[in-house]
Amino acid sequence: MDAEKATENNPGGHGVTLMCRVLGVSRSGYCAHLAARPAAEERALREGELVAEIRQIHTASRRAYGAPRITAALRRKGRRINRKRVERLMRERDIRGITRRKRRGLTRLDRKAAPSPDLVGRDFTAAEPGTRLVSDITYLPTLAGWWYLATVIDLATREMVGYAMADHHRAELVVDALKMAAGRGGLQKGCIAHSDRGSEYASHEYRRLITELGLRQSMGRTGSCYDNAAVETFFGLLKAEIGTTVWESREAAHADIFLFVEVDYNRTRLRKHPVYGYVTPVETRVLTAQDLAPAA
After folding, report:
1. Which of 232, 189, 185 is nearest to 210 (CA)?
2. How many domains does the chain have?
3. Which keywords annotate this record (predicted)?
4. Residue 82 and residue 160 in one domain
């Protein structure tokens, strides 16, 4: 180390050799530290930029994403990154995804109506869109009273293809949700429409629509979340990620749910697909359609 460098790093004017001897540090080790400092500062700068990206993705996901989905989102942006590194950075800075809580079921068994057979058997997969649907109802609190949401999810893509909202959960609510799913197109003849045994799904109105659309009705057991786990998962996401405990009005709840379904869930939220990796439900539908299209 030359005299000029020694003076720069020791403004008190003490010699480097003397200081190293007093501090019990080797001169070569001190010089190696100085030589490595620019690289360490550059690494710290790059890590700070990465943490800023992680925080941006985490915030955009309503603070719902954990390390796996944040890693996937970073890779989609072109970053070559290891999941363990993301986990470490999130752990060190206390950045956490949301842990979902179990919910209490809403629908009630109609003991007078004969249940349909369970055609799903807890197998919540489908090879093609429009072949297996799952449905359920949940309730959301507002200052004006309960607000109810009926849903229809395509198991092949996990896309929310139909939904309806109202201040009641009569049969017409689930009928409207299924009509929306049918109106978007793509339901194949003989498509399974699965739900629990709630009175809404056992109603004459709902079963009439099932017949008109050429679908096959399937029912799990009322009160068993495992028989309709795919919808339960969505409701868990909705209530954990949307962040509102009680809405000021039903109109506010309606607007938030619409935004969550159509933007956050269907078109933005990443889900790990066994073939395509981390993709959104809409991307899954597009990719599946491409794979199923006959070769020219």
Report:
1. 189
2. 2
3. Plasmid
4. no
